[in-house]
Structure formats: C-alpha cells, structure tokens
C-alpha cells in the first residue's frame, strides 16, 4: 500500500497552523488526511489548538481551559501571516463539517499533558458519531492513558501511540494496548532497527511525524511507512508522483 500523506496542523508551512485555511489548503493539495491538536475550552467545547495557551499563535493571552469558546473566537489566530488576518480558532465540529464531503481522514491528537481534560474522550467519541465520521478518525496522544480510555469506550476506534524518542520493539507495546498504529518521530521510525518490519509483521501501522525534509520523506516512503505527517504535503505528494 502506497504511503499516505497527512498535513500536519493542516498545510501549516503555508497557512496558520490548525486553522480552517490550513485544512482547506491541505484538501485542495490532495492530501490523504490532516493532523490536528485538540484542547478543551472552559465551557467544554473541543477547540483546535496546539498549545495549552493561546499566546504563541494568537493576539491574546491565557489558557484555553480558562476561556469560553466565545472568548477564544474573538482572538486572531493568523499567527503573523498578514494575508490571513482575523482567522479564528476552529472547533473540531467545524473541521469535521469542512472535510466531511472529502475522503480525507483526520488524525486527532488529544492534548492531555500540560492540562488534563477529564472526560474529553467521551466528547470525542460522541462527536465522531454525531458527525458521521466513524472510520475516518485516528486518535493519537503522547498521553497513552487517554488512548486507553478511548479504546475502552469504543473498541472500534482507531488509536495510534504517539512518541518522540526511540522505543524498543514498539509493536509489542502497541499489541498490549490494542493499538492500530504507532506514531513515532520520523527519526525514531527511520533509525530504530527492524521497526518497520516488526510493525508490518504484526499488523501495526507506522505513521511518522516531523517529516519535513525531502530526505526524511523519501526514506519513509522507501521503507514503506503507512503515512507521513508533514507541514508540506505538496512536497510529499510530488515525491510520491502524485
Ligand atoms: O502528531 C504528531 C505531532 O503533531 C506531535 O507533536 O508537538 O507537533 O503536536 P506536536
Ligand atoms: Ca500534533
């Protein structure tokens, strides 16, 4: 199966990360999927933002967890890109609405590290069902307890174990958690001996992230990664001859 291309925070090399313009651009480029980050507002809405605070990517200040959806929507998330002035933070529901008619899949990264959002797993599964997105979502998180919760609620949910550093025989751990995939940093995917083969033999997908150089993208394609998660989906698509 040919390697898929997932746009990391949307086509974030060209448009403000984790915004509707970045996701729309990924769709127009022909990406197979998008990756996005989910946090929760003080009134329980699933908001798309990488950081627990709004400071880096907006003109506001504070924690997502301390602001309502309406308060967050007042901020400008154009992230210094003048042509995208007044870009608003999307909710996960809005992103599902945008891509529903396409064939793209969504890698929902659940952010539960700096701030823990108790019960976010229930909301995610409920929204996936409500929006008819079943089968098109794969959940990942650096917090694997969150993925365990998702697995408990929905035995059919797809989960990918997100990690940064090298891990020995990750397919064994993936099997223990009944995960569908691992999501290693691309260097871990490329440099750990036998990783691709071990995962393939055990039916575990390898979806590698931070693949932003042509060299890493090419190596992942040659080694048979299932998906590369990149800020520049257009570059990866050209390398794949698409
Ligand atoms: O999901 C892959 C990647 O996005 C994980 O790191 O910090 O970009 O969310 P980060
Ligand atoms: Ca992410």
Report on this model:
It is a single chain. With 242 residues, this protein is of the alpha/beta class. Helices cover 33% and strands 19% of the residues. Helix 1 runs parallel beside helix 3. The mean pLDDT is 98. SN-glycerol-3-phosphate binds next to strand 2. Calcium ion binds next to strand 2.
Write a brief caption for the model.
The protein is of the alpha/beta class and 242 residues long. It has ten helices and nine strands.
The order of strands across the largest sheet is 1-2-4-5-6-7-8-9
Overall mean pLDDT stands at 98
Structural class assignment: alpha/beta
Largest sheet entry:
8 strands, parallel, barrel
Bound small molecules, by name, code or SMILES, are: SN-glycerol-3-phosphate, calcium ion
Strand proportion, as a percent range, falls in 15-25%
**Number of beta-strand segments:** 9
Helicity level: 25-40%
Cα shape: globular
Rg over alpha carbons: 17 Å
H/E element order: EHEEHHEHEHEHEHHEHEH
Give unreliable regions as ranges: none
Taking the alpha carbons of the first and last residues, their distance comes to 14 Å
Please give the count of helices. Answer: 10
């Amino acid at each position: 199966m040919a390697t898929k291309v997932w746009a990391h925070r949307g086509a974030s090399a060209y448009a403000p990360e984790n915004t509707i313009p970045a996701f729309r651009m990924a769709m127009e480029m022909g990406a197979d999927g998008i990756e996005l980050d989910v946090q929760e507002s003080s009134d329980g809405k699933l908001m798309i933002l990488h950081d627990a605070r709004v400071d880096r990517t907006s003109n506001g200040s504070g924690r997502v967890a301390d602001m309502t959806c309406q308060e967050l929507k007042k901020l400008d998330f154009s992230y210094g890109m003048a042509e995208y002035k007044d870009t608003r933070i999307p909710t996960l529901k809005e992103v599902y609405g945008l891509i529903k008619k396409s064939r793209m899949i969504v890698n929902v990264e659940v952010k539960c590290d700096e701030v823990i959002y108790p019960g976010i797993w229930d909301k995610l599964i409920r929204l996936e069902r409500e929006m008819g997105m079943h089968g098109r979502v794969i959940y990942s998180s650096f917090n694997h307890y969150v993925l365990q919760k998702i697995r408990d609620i929905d035995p059919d949910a797809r989960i990918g174990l997100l990690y940064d550093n090298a891990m020995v025989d990750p397919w064994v751990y993936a099997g223990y958690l009944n995960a569908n995939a691992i999501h290693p940093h691309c260097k871990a995917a490329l440099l750990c001996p036998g990783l691709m083969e071990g995962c393939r033999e055990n039916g575990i997908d390898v979806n590698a992230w931070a693949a932003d150089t042509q060299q890493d993208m090419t190596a992942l394609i040659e080694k048979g990664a299932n998906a590369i998660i990149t800020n520049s989906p257009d570059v990866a698509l050209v390398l794949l001859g698409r």
